[in-house]
Write a structure and sequence with these properties.
alpha+beta, four-stranded antiparallel β-sheet, globular
């Protein structure tokens, strides 16, 4: 058995499709091919599948052998298929767990950087060069890393929409204008202002990159009188944590086998590889649907829409199944339902960040 190698199955059911991942129980290698025996006896030989549940109309198997460290996901499970897949798929977990901390923000930045138009890319490069940097992922967690030096900015990272209501109301949820949806719009306008100082525009770029990531995190757009889930205690795969921390980072780290270093450091090459694989899994239809197309003057409304999306996911996913949040079975069940949501939100944030930067800086 070769732990850390992974099999991906593409499931086609009528017009729907999705991906599941299964941990192999045995490998037999020879003649340049791999025969993989999955739990339950399903055999995958190159591109053929010998046994799968009868309720799946048609199934295509894709054998992807990657190094243990680069266990990444090329396509997400279809949200429409997820209930059916949950009954059959084995939850893919890895050796270490822990982060929408620096890695999550870097993934958003890396996806966005792939889709900058030439003019926006040159503008970004010129701004980053002031500090000897070259990539958006190098500034994506600046706002978190420097929060102690900027104590008045804590509320900029989220918006407190009461969990029981339907959507954002400015007078109730952001009366002072110091929440994430307002700050995205504010700093995008600073970034667009060619008369602003280069340093002011660089700082604005840092905020835009970070806050567009933040607004896509479901626990950054809800208020259940629990400090954004920070007082909701859970035991996740044997480790005590809280609901907010779970969504901020541990779901990603569990899914991708990522371990952060001190002071928001991480292996940029590994995270960039993860980001590119996620990016490759975004369909053209999804990219088109997620991309904002309006003028900069409409960005405030777009940001509110993104917050409302996160709020609904907090209601429908994050705050469900919390009656007894502990134990291996609960941890696996929660990870299985939460990871596709987190994955999609990272992808959406990356696509939307690219669109905003192209609108603000591009040709």
């Amino acid at each position: 058995m070769q732990w850390g190698w992974w099999i991906r199955l593409k499931i086609l059911a009528g017009e729907s499709h999705g991906w599941i991942e299964l941990t192999p129980t045995r490998f037999a290698l020879g003649n340049g091919r791999a025969l993989v025996i999955l739990a339950g006896g399903t055999a995958v030989d190159g591109m053929s599948v010998t046994r799968l549940p009868s309720n799946w109309r048609r199934t295509v198997a894709v054998l992807q052998t990657v190094s243990p460290r680069f266990r990444v996901i090329m396509n997400r499970p279809s949200r429409r298929l997820l209930p059916a897949l949950c009954a059959t798929a084995l939850l893919v977990t890895s050796f270490a767990s822990q982060a929408w901390g620096p890695e999550g923000h870097a993934i958003v930045a890396d996806i966005a950087q792939q889709h900058l138009d030439p003019v926006a890319s040159a503008e970004v490069a010129a701004l980053l060069k002031q500090e000897g940097l070259s990539r958006l992922d190098e500034i994506s967690s600046w706002a978190d890393a420097n929060r102690k030096a900027m104590p008045n900015t804590g509320g900029w990272h989220y918006v407190d929409i009461p969990l029981h209501v339907d959507d954002y109301v400015a007078a109730r949820d952001c009366p002072q204008g110091d929440c994430v949806v307002v700050k995205i719009d504010q700093y995008a306008h600073v970034l667009a202002d060619k008369s602003a100082t280069p340093q002011a525009r660089l700082d604005a770029l840092k905020w835009v990159v970070h806050l567009i990531g933040d607004v896509h995190q479901p626990l950054h757009a809800e208020d259940n009188n629990d400090k954004g889930g920070n007082t909701v205690q859970v035991q996740f795969f044997g480790r005590g944590t809280n609901l907010h921390s779970l969504w901020d980072g541990q779901i990603i780290r569990k899914a991708m086998d990522l371990t952060p270093g001190p002071n928001y450091t991480f292996d940029h090459a590994i995270v960039q590889s993860d980001a590119m694989m996620l990016d490759a899994g975004i369909t053209p239809a999804e990219r088109e649907a997620w991309t904002p197309t309006g003028p900069l003057s409409g960005l405030g409304s777009e940001a509110i829409g993104w917050a409302d999306e996160s709020h609904r996911l907090a209601q429908q996913v994050a705050y469900t199944d919390l009656a007894k949040p502990s134990g291996e079975a609960w941890s696996q069940r929660y990870q299985l339902k939460a990871w596709p949501v987190v994955e999609t939100r990272l992808e959406q944030a990356g696509v939307r960040l690219a669109a905003v930067l192209n609108q603000v800086l591009g040709g």
